[in-house]
Amino acid sequence: MIMKPVKYFLLARTIKILLQFLFLLGSLSLILNLYIELFLPKSYVEVGGWTYGYKDQGYQIKGVMSLSIPDTLTYYSSGGGQANTHNYNGRNLGADSVKDKIVNIIKSSENECIKITNDINSQENMTVRAISKNKIYNFFWAVTEKLDLVFYLFFIIILIKLTNRYMDREIFMIRSFKLVSSLGILLILSEILTLAIGYINGIIMQHPKLHTYSLIEKKGYNFLDLSFDFFSTVSITNIGIGILIILLSQVLKEAILVKQENELTI
Fold first, then answer.
1. Are residues 161 and 255 in the same domain?
2. pLDDT in tens, 44-69
3. Is 185 in the same domain as 222?
4. Considering only CA atoms, which of 139, 147, 148 is closest in space to residue 38?
5. How does DSSP classify residue 7?
6. For residue range 151-170, what is the model confidence (pLDDT) as tens digits?
7. What is the Cα–Cα distance from 210 to 221, expressed in whole angstroms?
8. CB-hemisphere CA count at 13 Å for 158?
9. CA pseudo-torsion sign 53, 59, 62, 68
10. What sections of the protein cross the membrane (predicted)?
11. Is residue 99 helix, strand or coil?
């Protein structure tokens, strides 16, 4: 007897094909990254005008960016300069010595009654590229930058297996709930690993800041306060989602077991 396909079978098949395509792209990306790292002196590969990788050597490191734009830039006739932030009044050389004053204001073109401060903090992780003369640091960064891709591939594999279970009418079997729980476990493990990596990167990198200086006049400028924090890269949201997935899968599994016991009793 030929079983009738499950509801939304075509949608499930389409999702499976898409997941397989994403897995293929991720696998190729991982293979290319390993090939470039192990066999090429440069950090990219060119094939027929197509470039994969980065022309600037370095490894991707996650960090949280903070940017503070000075409210006022003051230039003096002597050639010096000063950045005043948050209406702070620094040195005063007299009105005659001031050559120019530049004001930085973030304005809303739609509503001018709103004032936006010049402090900008990114809540999401950003990536910087870094390379060191220390080979241990480079090896650590080379390994850790590929771990995200490895977790991504495992995540895709689990989703493909769950899609197959749905298409085979096995989505409500106990082993399927173990797969669902593994998604949550994978999310939590990835964030725990991110926390450990961020802590190590924070020790290595500390809190790098932007330094601007002139090669001709031998002057330094601090007119833009840009810094990165590598300690705070973990996502509490992902950990919460992982815990929620595990709890929901356990609740559903227990509900299915109770239903099966009731059916056997009847």
1. yes
2. 777 666 776 776 778 888 888 888 87
3. yes
4. 139
5. T
6. 999 999 999 999 999 888 88
7. 10
8. 19
9. negative
10. 21-40, 149-167, 179-200, 230-252
11. strand
Tell me, yes or no, whether 261 lies in a domain. Answer: yes
Query: Tens digits of per-residue pLDDT, 14-31?
Result: 999 999 999 999 999 899
Q: What is the DSSP string of 197-246?
A: HHHHHHHHH---B--EE-TTT--EE-SSEEEEESS----HHHHHHHHHHH
- Is residue 217 predicted with pLDDT exceeding 80? no
Residue with tokens 């402090």: 119
109 and 35 within one domain: no
Structural domain includes residue 154: yes
198: number of Cβ within 10 Å:
22
Which tokens sit at 42? 């440069």
CB 113 within 8 A of CB 64: no
**CA 177 and chain centroid, separation:** 28
> How many domains does the structure of the chain reveal?
2
Structure tokens at 146: 């590929």
- 170 secondary structure, DSSP code: -
Residues 133 and 155 in one domain: yes
Q: Give domain status of residue 1, yes or no.
A: no
